[in-house]
């Protein structure tokens, strides 16, 4: 069946006595109805319009359950609301999800009549969950005051300023929420959970702003949205970008927001969801005495303006003939300041820009193997005009490498040796998919490095804290942390700020499978000292067939709101081969709100990474016992006194540079190589002993013996070394093998300077005559 759009449009001008009436909401509904029927050819039967008295609580809920529920898989469900937005006291059971103890609400026609109720964000979340079985795409447009977080679930922490008017009275009872949905859940499970399903929300303003109306008696946001939709082929990102520009240039102070939940794909045509090519030219506009381009550090613009990014500039209505050049002089997370080089623009006009030079180097990926396959991949990459990736032949130490075979190509992590993804087939769709995989990796790498080298505000005023929850205590971690555990680890994240002005905070998760996910998007207005805590603990773990796992979290702190759908990207199915079968509103009139932050156009980032290493085997004090590490060439003999746990971990990481990586790089220059301690494809070079007891009992007279499934050549020597950033410690040495085994005696253990119960050991081998050169090398 062909794709269908099923729409519910709600607009309320007339409210009961005591609530101010609005002027443009019904007209918004009519305008959007006309757009759907003319431009998108939606039949009237697929559109339900509820206005004024008809838009009461019962009818709106009924329309969700009877009209919108008609959608089928692949359809688009579109809900638009124009009217009052508000907030109200929330029951205590919801306080863990809302630091200000408030709900965000839609004020329906009878909400403020005797016995009436607003439609709370937590109820709207349930209505969306009820639509999830249709497998249709869910799109919401909310032109109301304080609409920024109208569908937020438990993962989104809110911090809001006071409104002009909000609902008076005591807390709503939990039973009053959508026929007792949450009270029944609490009785049934003993806890509350706000549902969150894949959907997109476009909101007229942030949580603490007021949506405004135009002099033509329409909603400013709705009008900007309709103006942006003059191009029916535009995708969500482009439509929202244009709508935001129109609002700014029309003089409205509100800041529209958009949030894509649970991987909603915004790079498709608006409502029709046809896939389109990425837009390469970005909008340029004049605001507050400065020209801006909607492209920033998140998209890869270099933050070092000493080597500025340059661009070609075009008229918006003639994007083929360049008018001149511009350079980027200031870089924000999602926008950059532009100065013109060879022409004088008209401030009343809009322009588009295309990057002609960017100072950020593309991700270098080594390419080798079957020459015809290489040529096809390189041609596809050139056709995509992406500056994110550059392929290099004869690149000996690439972070990533692409191995080409007849009718196949496979991308590998150059450090761990693990396969990221591959294609079997060299059709157009296959090749474009592989290019997209490489671009996904490049985007992810840029996220890891995202920072502002010269912020105006001190980064020390906002901190991201990772808290580890142990059985008897909580441990707070900043920056880089490695945890060794044989079990699940419980963590939570906290944001602590002392910034005394309006700020926006985006907490981003960077996953090992190259996914980028927005974990929290929150704001604080003139907050001063505050902290926001994730009330829910998260279990982090290592996959059964893996030895370690990485978790990285990035906090973006900005004076400008960050549009979070541009932050997200889906992960990759690591190790898989892909075969393609074909190508593929507070309660008030919408009036102006003035804000005067102390610092404008500033941002910085904070980062914390967690490396989780699996404890494999417990080492007990039984000299006659041998402890074999699974899938490893290493066996350790029991010691008379030493106790602890044995782990294997990597020396190299795409997340952060470990001290041992510096050591091994230097060893490589002396032609010494680390041992691969596993018998599988995964490369682990570090033997780590944790929870050590009686370390001082390991001596030359009473060594700890390692037996390795390894045969040394006559000219080779095997060394055990420890290195924590300064001095190299030699722990033991072996010069010969017996049969198929090599025994190495550790005469001492040197523990980590930050943890006296951990010793990291790297085993390296090389030629005897180079041993002197190795020991004399500069590290």
Automatic annotation (TrEMBL):
<dbReference type="InterPro" id="IPR011600">
    <property type="entry name" value="Pept_C14_caspase"/>
</dbReference>
<dbReference type="GO" id="GO:0005737">
    <property type="term" value="C:cytoplasm"/>
</dbReference>
<dbReference type="Pfam" id="PF00656">
    <property type="entry name" value="Peptidase_C14"/>
</dbReference>
<protein>
    <recommendedName>
        <fullName>Peptidase C14 caspase domain-containing protein</fullName>
    </recommendedName>
</protein>
<dbReference type="GO" id="GO:0004197">
    <property type="term" value="F:cysteine-type endopeptidase activity"/>
</dbReference>
<dbReference type="InterPro" id="IPR029030">
    <property type="entry name" value="Caspase-like_dom_sf"/>
</dbReference>
<dbReference type="GO" id="GO:0006508">
    <property type="term" value="P:proteolysis"/>
</dbReference>
<feature type="domain" description="Peptidase C14 caspase">
    <location>
        <begin position="6"/>
        <end position="259"/>
    </location>
</feature>
<dbReference type="InterPro" id="IPR050452">
    <property type="entry name" value="Metacaspase"/>
</dbReference>
